[in-house]
C-alpha cells in the first residue's frame, strides 16, 4: 500500500512539472523568437527537456512499482536509478546543445531586441521555476525519489539561469552590448555540471553506495537494546530501489545461550527491524566467551595491541575455543590502508608471543557501514 501511494504521489508531482514546463516552453520560445535572444530560446529548449524528464520519471516509477517475479525476485526498484541516469543524459545533451549555439553567438554576436513584455514574462518564469524546483525537490526527498530530486535541482538551476538572462537584457538596454553568447556559455556550463552530478549520483546508486551512516547507527543501536545482545557488527544493506532493502548483521551473544534462546532472539530482531525500518534482515551470531578470566584477559590484550594501529577501525567477533586451543576474531581496517595483510600477520605474531599455546585466526572484514 505504501509503495502504491508513493508511486501515485510521484506521478502526480511529475504531471504538475510537465504542465508547468510546457507553459514555460511556449512563453519562452515566443519571447526568444521575438527578441532574437538565443539564451531565451536555449532556456525554452531546456524547459522542454525538463518536461520530457518528468515523463521518464513517470514511466520509471510505474516500472519500478511492479511486483517481484521469478525472474526478478528482488523487484524492479532499480529502474528508478536507470530513470535518473536517462534524465542526466538528457540534461547533458541540453547543456552541450546550449554550449554549441552560444559559442556561435560569441563569434557572430547580435544585439537582442528586448521589450517590457518579454522581460515581465521572463521574470515571471524565474519565480515559477524557482517555486516549482523547490516544491519538486522537497517532495523528492519526502518520497525518497532520486528522479524527483534531480528534476527539482535542475529546475532551481533554471530559475538562476533565467534570472541571469534578465541581467543580460538590462546590459543590452543600458549599454547596447550583447553578452548573449557569453551568458549562453555560462548557462551551458551550469547545465553540464548539474547533469554530471545527477549522473554520478545515479550511477553510485546502481553500483552500490555506502550505507547511510545515520541509518546504520540507529539500526545497530536498536538491535543492541535487546537483552543479551552485546554488540551488532558486519551490517550490510543492499538497496533494490528506494523502498526495498535486504541485508544482514551479526550480533554478539553469550556462548551459554542454547539454540532455542538464540532462535527466539534472532527471530524477534528480524521481525522488529522489518516492522520499524522495512528492512529484510538476516541475523547471524558471534559467540562471546563466558566463564574463565583468561578469555577477558586475552581480549583486553588484543584490544591494547590493535590500539597501536590507527588503520584498524574495529575488532569484533573475538572467541576462544579452549578445547581446540584456537582464537578467532575479525578486523575492520581502513579502505585506504595498503598493509592489511601485514597488520593481520603482525597481530597474530604478537598474540602468539603472549599465548604460545593457542593458534590465532583473523578474518578481514570490510568497512561497510560506519
Could you characterize what this model shows?
The strands form two sheets. This protein has a three-stranded mixed beta sheet, covered by helices on one side. The protein has a three-stranded mixed beta sheet with strand order 4-5-6, covered by helices on one side. It is elongated and about 90 Å long. Helix 1 (2-35) packs antiparallel against helix 4 (116-142). It is α/β, with parallel strands linked by helices and 370 residues long. The mean pLDDT is 83. The chain has ten helices and six strands.
CA radius of gyration is: 29 Å
What multimeric state do the chains show? single chain
Count every helix, treating DSSP H or I runs of 4 or more residues as helices.
10
Stretches where pLDDT is under 50 for at least 5 consecutive residues are none
The sequence of SSEs as H and E is HHHHHHHEEHEHEEHE
How are the strands ordered across the major sheet? 1-2-3
Instruction: Report how far the terminal alpha carbons are from each other.
Output: 32 Å
The global form is: elongated
- Strand content is 5-15%
Structural class: alpha/beta
Largest sheet: 3 strands, mixed
Number of strands: 6
Instruction: Return the average pLDDT rounded to an integer.
Output: 83
Level of helix content?
55-70%
Amino acid at each position: 500500500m505504501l509503495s502504491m501511494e508513493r508511486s501515485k504521489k510521484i506521478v502526480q508531482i511529475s504531471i504538475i512539472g510537465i504542465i508547468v514546463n510546457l507553459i514555460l516552453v511556449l512563453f519562452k520560445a515566443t519571447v526568444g523568437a521575438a527578441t532574437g535572444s538565443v539564451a531565451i530560446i536555449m532556456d525554452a529548449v531546456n524547459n522542454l527537456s525538463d518536461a520530457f524528464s518528468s515523463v521518464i520519471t513517470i514511466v520509471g516509477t510505474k516500472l519500478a512499482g511492479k511486483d517481484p517475479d521469478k525472474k526478478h525476485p528482488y523487484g524492479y526498484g532499480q529502474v528508478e536509478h536507470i530513470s535518473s541516469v536517462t534524465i542526466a543524459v538528457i540534461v547533458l545533451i541540453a547543456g552541450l546543445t546550449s554550449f554549441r549555439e552560444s559559442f556561435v553567438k560569441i563569434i557572430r554576436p547580435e544585439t537582442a531586441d528586448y521589450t517590457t513584455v518579454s522581460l515581465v514574462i521572463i521574470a515571471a518564469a524565474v519565480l515559477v521555476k524557482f517555486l516549482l524546483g523547490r516544491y519538486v525537490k522537497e517532495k523528492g526527498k519526502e518520497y525518497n525519489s532520486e528522479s524527483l530530486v534531480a528534476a527539482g535541482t535542475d529546475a532551481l538551476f533554471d530559475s538562476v539561469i533565467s534570472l541571469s538572462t534578465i541581467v543580460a537584457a538590462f546590459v543590452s538596454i543600458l549599454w547596447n552590448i550583447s553578452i548573449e553568447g557569453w551568458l549562453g556559455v555560462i548557462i551551458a556550463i551550469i547545465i553540464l555540471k548539474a547533469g554530471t552530478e545527477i549522473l554520478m549520483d545515479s550511477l553510485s546508486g546502481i553500483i552500490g553506495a555506502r550505507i547511510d551512516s545515520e541509518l546504520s547507527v540507529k539500526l545497530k543501536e536498536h538491535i543492541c537494546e535487546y537483552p543479551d545482545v552485546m554488540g551488532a557488527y558486519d551490517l550490510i544493506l543492499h538497496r533494490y530501489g528506494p523502498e526495498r532493502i535486504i541485508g544482514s548483521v551479526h550480533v554478539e551473544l553469550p556462548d551459554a545461550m542454547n539454540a532455542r534462546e538464540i532462535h527466539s532472539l534472532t527471530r524477534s530482531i528480524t521481525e522488529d527491524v522489518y516492522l520499524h525500518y522495512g528492512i529484510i534482515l538476516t541475523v547471524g551470531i558471534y559467540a562471546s566467551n563466558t566463564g574463565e578470566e583468561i578469555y577477558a584477559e586475552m581480549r583486553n590484550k588484543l584490544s591494547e595491541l590493535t590500539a597501536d594501529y590507527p588503520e584498524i577501525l574495529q575488532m569484533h567477533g573475538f572467541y576462544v575455543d579452549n578445547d581446540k586451543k584456537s582464537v578467532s576474531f575479525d578486523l575492520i581496517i581502513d579502505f585506504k590502508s595498503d598493509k592489511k595483510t601485514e597488520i593481520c600477520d603482525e597481530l597474530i605474531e604478537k598474540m602468539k608471543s603472549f599465548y604460545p599455546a593457542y593458534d590465532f585466526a583473523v578474518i578481514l572484514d570490510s568497512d561497510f557501514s560506519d
